[in-house]
Amino acid sequence: MDDTATNDFLISPRALWQRIGTPLAPQIIDTHRRPIFDALSGVIPGAAWRDTHQVESWATGLDRARPIVVACAHGEQMSQIAVAHLRGEGFAAQALEGGHDAWVATGLPLVDKKALARFAPKSPSVWVTRRRPKIDRVACPWLIRRFIDPQALILFVDPARVPETAKEIGAVPFDIDGVELSHEGPRCSFDTMLKIFGLESEPALARLALIVRGADTGRPDLAPEAAGLLAVSLGLSALAGDDDHGLLRRGFMVYDALFAWLRHAADERHNWPAKARS
Predict the structure, then answer these.
(1) Cβ neighbours around 8 below 10 Å, total
(2) 48 assigned to some structural domain
(3) Secondary structure of 1-43 in HEC code, one letter for each residue
(4) Strands, E, within 72-227: which ranges?
(5) Contact 236, 252 (CB under 8 A)
(6) Which of 40, 74, 108 is where one domain is finished?
(7) Nearest Cα to 11, choosing from 80, 59, 78, 62?
(8) Is residue 104 located within the same domain as residue 165?
(9) Are residues 130 and 97 in the same domain?
(10) What is the CATH number of the domain that holds 56?
């Protein structure tokens, strides 16, 4: 079977990966038996662990408007039991073909589970940073929502209030001085998050990091696209004013498009007028 193909009941690892990191990503449920899940070092991006034997309980919290993919160790038992139940309840659910083992064997990225336990032990996780985002503070929320916790809450407050807010409500502070998820030398917070969550080796994300770093740190020489990202980001900020969450919605479209370009169209070239064929 084509490794990018899907059918009604199963979805291949590569087909699932093509949806992750996009606005059309499915809800991903990990149904490993708990002792096996606890022993894993990494999980599929955006996945949330659930007990197959409690499917009647957790299914009520799923979004019926979005498809569901269920993954277990081998794609044979625990995931298929959950999918059978979900489909019986009218959900558009599929099992990951070959399960977590096939995902790993295909060489697809995993999110570091220790980092998840530290920063996003439950969903929705809560994150806080400085208001009036422009580049890094749009790129980081995009990474969080697309690869770490799709349900994450992103809060924006005055810069001086970020540490107190984080402490008061148990939120994760980012992109401010003195916290772990921030700039490291010439690298920006987006770089730091990729490293901590184990995603910096994914080729498209690594190239996106160069673009973000170049735009955010005044280094347009790092990537040809950095100057364009800076211009678009400053323009969006000027349009948004104090509407930080409105800016995120618009900014996510920019990062979705950049990521899709890096994955699928980075080698495509356009030229006008096209040379006439002889």
Answers:
(1) 8
(2) yes
(3) CCCCCECCCEECHHHHHHHCCCCCCCEEEECCCHHHHHHCCEE
(4) 93-96, 111-112, 126-130, 153-157, 172-173
(5) no
(6) 108
(7) 80
(8) no
(9) no
(10) 3.40.250.10
Q: How far apart are alpha carbons 257 and 13 in whole angstroms?
A: 22
Per-residue pLDDT of the chain (278 residues; tens, 9 = 90+): 344 444 689 999 999 999 999 999 999 999 999 999 999 999 999 999 999 999 999 999 999 999 999 999 999 999 999 999 999 999 999 999 999 999 999 999 999 999 999 999 999 999 999 999 999 999 999 999 999 999 999 999 999 999 999 999 999 999 999 999 999 999 999 999 999 999 999 999 999 999 999 999 999 999 999 999 999 999 999 999 999 999 999 999 999 999 999 999 988 888 877 665 55
Q: Does residue 5 sit within a domain? A: no
β-bridge mates for residue 130, sequence order = 157
What is the Cα–Cα distance from 260 to 278, expressed in whole angstroms?
Answer: 34
The residue out of 87, 108, 129 marking a domain boundary is 108
Distance of CA 51 to the CA centre of its chain: 23
> Cα(136)–Cα(126) distance, rounded to whole angstroms?
17
Which two structure tokens, joined as six digits, stand for 216? Answer: 């955010």
End-to-end CA distance of the chain: 41
**Entry field: residues in the chain:** 278
Q: How many domains are there within the chain?
A: 2
